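To the team - iron/sulfur cluster complex, inputs and output below.
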Amino acid sequence: MNFPDLDKMQASHPRWEVPSNWVVCLNLSGGTQSSFLFLAMRLGLLKPVSPNGDWATVVCIIADPGNENPETYNYLDWLKENTTDRLPVLVADGPNITDDLLDNRNRSRLDNPPFFVDKGDLGAGQLVHKCTSHYKIQPIRRAFRKWCRDKFKIDPATSSHRFTVDCWIGFTSDEVRRVNRFDHSSQPQYMPVRFPLNELNIDKQQVSEFYEEFGIPMPSRSMCEICFAHGLSSRKKQAEERPGQFELACKVDDEIRDLRHCGVTYPVYVSNTLIPLRKLKENGFSTGNRMKDAESECNSGVCFL
Ligand code: SF4
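Output:
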């Protein structure tokens, strides 16, 4: 990818302003929408306005489950190079999702993606979605609390001060379903969630136009290579363009088939087709059933954006 020099395109006035808390924490995944929020702030086009009218103090936090698409890592590296004092970027320490899934036989607890189970005559089912919390949300919160301790000498989770921050998530205005389905009760009190793109009525089309206007390459969807949400076309692309990552996904798929030691009594599959990934490749990544080829979604706000 050819990345432009952001320092040569600073805006003199913000195009968008978001009345905010004193502190804003951006969940930065390296996908299209969270990168838009970072870049628009970096260019001075988007201003999070603190209660006294100044720029709010911002921190951008990346959670890395260790299994993103290489293009996403490349993009995140470029964003990190463009960190400024006003826009620091942290990478949260956290566990590696692939290592843990491959090591599942030594575990009784698995923070798995919502992989699919074959219930025989009862049809297909899905495991409880645990990965996003364990590999992304919790590492981001730990990193944020550490940043607060270092910067303000306050831990927002334990402080008696009323210290609250806005947690920014990049759902656009045409993602009303994701906005409405977001589970605010799972957020800690000190970190209420805001959807600035939705509040500014910015939709996916406008986000695309932003990348085009500034000649900035558009990031690919940010998601783990072993994610349950790859549809068949996405898996096919992975097998063709990133065979090593496809082989890793196949290994995970092989290893999770029998999770009885984790309390799962049905055979488990990475793909919602309930077909092993190796078999799907042999079949040309087609089930002949279009409904089954549709991709799933994550509504937590830290995956894919
Ligand atoms: S991208 Fe997929 S596998 Fe990775 S944490 Fe998110 S939902 Fe889980």
